[in-house]
């Protein structure tokens, strides 16, 4: 890519990054207020049941992500990547604002949880097409020797959006009394996030770049027939990261409160610090992935995650302040390493003519199932086993599956022609 195109490439990266920050903040902020939402929308005498129901609604947004992936992926392949990104950011902004204005169970009864789940489903459709479209957009604009570094900023933006949600959750817990937080304070992050997402729409509307339109007349059919191997590879590679990420950065906020007996303020603060480490590691890992290959970096990350998850969660459950944050760092490190190489690998594995549809579908199957239901599974697992190490079993098992897929089935993709 010549020097004339470099400023354009930089601008495209920045716009996609900012869009991902906004969209993922909107999607993830729910997880940081799951305990309050469970109490207000799924009331029960048993706090664990309310929390499980709340995470069930959280999971619903993930479970429709494959459908959103097919919908927006088809738009991306047949109409263009930019059009898919514009539509998806609007489909996130509107339900997020509505969620912040939604009456609770006390006001409208059973309609409150029904409407909440419907709004989460719309959010899930949106994010199902958003993330992968932006990754493909950035990788296809990148020089061959910088694909991982370009792609990582899409993942970085998504993680930064989740960090922003965690930070806002911490701020709301720090400045508002518990009573006010439960009455109205929890609504503020949703309303602000939805409004800010409209800004993302304005930014993306100004993008102008060469679009790669598919030569396939039916990308969805081709994905499900001709390219099933690539679809399965992407699914299996992503389940380890999905389970680890949503255990550490969504469920662990509740874990620290319920098991380690941290205050919500301290739990969110720890979560924000661990997420900051992840953001530092990601671009460094991406640089190494461009230099030494995707498989080497991914192999290190998956192995570390599989080996350390169980003992680190066991220690975290003891509730020792500085030891706990060290354990969270220990889990954030391999997740950052994986994320640095995974974004480019996902794009490189999928053939051009079905790239948007195929990657959106397969990635969202992995994240929708193994990411979306992870908080629900580990909440139940911890309650059932009554062991603080319980979440580690789930993370270690999923990381092992991804590691085996990487070592025995996936070839190095660094030199793949796009």
Structural class: mainly alpha
Mean pLDDT: 85
CATH topology: Growth Hormone, Chain: A
Top CATH class: Mainly Alpha
Number of domains: 1
From the 3D coordinates, which CATH architecture would you assign?
Up-down Bundle
Radius of gyration: 20 Å
Stretches where pLDDT is under 50 for at least 5 consecutive residues are: 1-7
Helical coverage, percent range = over 70%
Order of helices and strands: HHHHHHHHHHHHHHHHHH
The best one-word shape is: globular
CATH homology group: MFS general substrate transporter like domains
- In whole angstroms, the N-to-C terminal distance is 14 Å
Strand content: under 5%
- What can be said about the biggest beta sheet? none
Q: How many helical stretches?
A: 18
Total strands: 0
Features:
Growth Hormone, Chain: A; 18 helices; disordered N terminus; 418 residues; mainly alpha
Task: Give structural notes.
It is a single chain. The protein is mainly α. It has a single domain (about 5-200, about 220-410), classed as Growth Hormone, Chain: A. It has helices at about 5-30, 35-40, 45-65, 65-80, 80-100, 105-110, 110-140, 145-175, 180-185, 185-205, 220-225, 230-260, 265-290, 295-315, 320-350, 355-370, 375-385, 390-410. α5 (about 80-100) packs antiparallel against α10. The longest helix is centred in the N-terminal third of the chain and has 31 residues, at about 110-140. It is globular and about 55 Å long.
């Amino acid at each position: 890519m010549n020097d004339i195109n470099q400023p354009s490439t930089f601008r495209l990266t920045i716009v996609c990054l900012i869009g991902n920050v906004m969209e993922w903040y909107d999607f993830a902020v729910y997880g940081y207020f799951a305990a309050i939402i469970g109490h207000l929308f799924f009331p029960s005498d048993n706090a664990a049941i309310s929390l499980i129901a709340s995470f069930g609604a959280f999971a619903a947004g993930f479970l429709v992500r494959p459908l959103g992936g097919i919908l927006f992926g088809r738009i991306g392949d047949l109409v263009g990547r930019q059009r898919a990104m514009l539509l998806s950011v609007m489909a996130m902004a509107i339900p997020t604002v509505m969620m912040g204005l939604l009456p609770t169970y006390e006001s409208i009864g059973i309609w409150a949880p029904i409407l909440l789940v419907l709004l989460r489903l719309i959010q899930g459709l949106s994010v199902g097409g958003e993330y992968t479209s932006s990754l493909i957009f950035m990788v296809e604009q990148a020089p061959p020797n910088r694909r991982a570094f370009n792609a990582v900023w899409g993942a970085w933006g998504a993680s930064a959006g989740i960090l922003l949600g965690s930070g806002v959750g911490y701020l709301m817990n720090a400045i508002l009394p518990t009573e006010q937080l439960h009455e109205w304070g929890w609504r503020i992050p949703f309303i602000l996030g939805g409004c800010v997402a409209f800004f993302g729409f304005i930014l993306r509307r100004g993008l102008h770049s060469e679009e790669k339109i598919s030569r396939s007349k039916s990308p969805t059919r081709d994905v499900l027939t001709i390219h099933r191997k690539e679809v399965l590879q992407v699914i299996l590679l992503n389940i380890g990261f999905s389970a680890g990420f949503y255990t550490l950065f969504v469920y662990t906020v509740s874990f620290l409160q319920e098991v380690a007996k941290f205050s919500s303020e301290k739990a969110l603060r720890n979560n924000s610090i661990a997420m900051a480490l992840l953001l530092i590691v990601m671009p460094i890992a991406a640089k190494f992935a461009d230099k030494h290959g995707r498989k080497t970096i991914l192999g290190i990350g998956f192995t570390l995650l599989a080996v350390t998850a169980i003992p680190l969660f066991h220690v975290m459950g003891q509730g020792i302040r500085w030891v706990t944050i060290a354990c969270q760092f220990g889990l954030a490190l391999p997740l950052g390493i994986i994320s640095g190489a995974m974004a480019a690998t996902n794009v490189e594995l999928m053939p051009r003519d079905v790239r948007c549809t195929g990657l959106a579908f397969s990635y969202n199957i992995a994240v929708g199932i193994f990411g979306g239901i992870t908080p629900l599974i580990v909440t139940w697992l911890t309650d059932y086993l009554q062991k603080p190490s319980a979440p580690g079993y789930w993370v270690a098992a999923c990381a092992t599956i991804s590691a085996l897929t990487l070592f025995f089935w996936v070839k190095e993709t660094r030199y793949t022609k796009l």
